[in-house]
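fyi for ur records
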Amino acid sequence: MAETGPLLTAKSRVPPVPASLVPRSRLARLLDGGRTPVTVVTAGAGWGKTTLLAAWVRTVRGPVAWLTLDGGDDDPARFWTYLATALSGPAPEATGRALAALAVPSVDPLGVAVPELLNGLADVPRPLLLVLDDLHEVTDRRVTEGLEFLLDHQPAALRVVLAGRTEPPVGLARLRARGRLTEIGQADLRFTDDEARQLLAAVAGPVPPDGAVPGVLHRSAGWAAGLVLGGLALRDRRQGRPLPAGPPGQEHALAYLVTEVLRGQPPERRELLLRTAPLDRFSGALVDAVLGRSHSAAALAGLQRTGCSSPRWTASGSACTRSSGPRCCRSWPTPNWWLSCGGARPGGSWTPACPRTRCAPCSPPGTTRPPPLPSWRTAPRSSSPAGSASSPSSAACSTRRPPARCRCWRRWPGRPG
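which gave:
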């Protein structure tokens, strides 16, 4: 058994909330109204999971144990030592025997320490809340099996909240079928227009009504990190600081996604994200046809599981995938392509460079476009590998080929000739 080493006490403290915090009563009601023993909050990077939970737990009546996880906790002994230590604050009488067992190097945590912890928690007389944040950092099967065991034998006094970028493999389907699970996803975390305006005002302060605010609202698509970064850019512009070319906050949003998403992906997934960035909607069969590759559906399903893409459905019911994050950042690997879709105008407004096509996804609402061009290619039906995001009978999405003068199409890496 690996040595756990010294523990960081900061990981068991509730993170501070930002000064620009916007009250989100609708989500607080979801958390307060969840009478289930397990709550899962799942969304990609920058959607405000930690901020939401950190603000909410400050309103919870009763003891709270918080644990922020990282890649170094992907070891059974270290994970359960951290978890038991976090619980020892609000419930010291419940964790003593478990911590004593974990201190013995030869003891199997799942076989000894976890049962001891469950026995101790069963005697806790008052409700107790446990929050595990950034659970996507833990992937060791021995750890997830132990956590699934804890949820299967969860004491009545214990409520568990799991937060991360992906659904944890801890038997959620079984919990869902038993009515023991409350789920909050990316669609729930998306900022409404009113919430987004409040956040922009809190970050940027008073800004002139020159069209920049509607542009940030539209491009962010409710993405919390995009709103904050756009608001900081608007604040800097109001203070007269020099800004990089492009829409407010774009450069920082690209850097954020590269750091938080791109670097954590294997090379083959990075390449797939790069080549599909200009596509607004796509399926595995369409990506195979456009890029001349195979088994894209399985790769897209893997990106979906890791929080890099989210499913969308066409009117005909065929499964498609749209790159995660707001519209302005779906092309983050190719910023030149994104910039070619719009041109700066006085007053901070942005208009598409190719109004006859769908190559300007980030233009503000109300932009007038002629009818779309006819479909140039429809991918054939194909059977998807097991576990893929598309069913064998799913019809592939279609894309539209811009005219030869469209700069976006010429900049698309891997485009057909």
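The chain is about 40% helix and 10% strand. thats all i got for now
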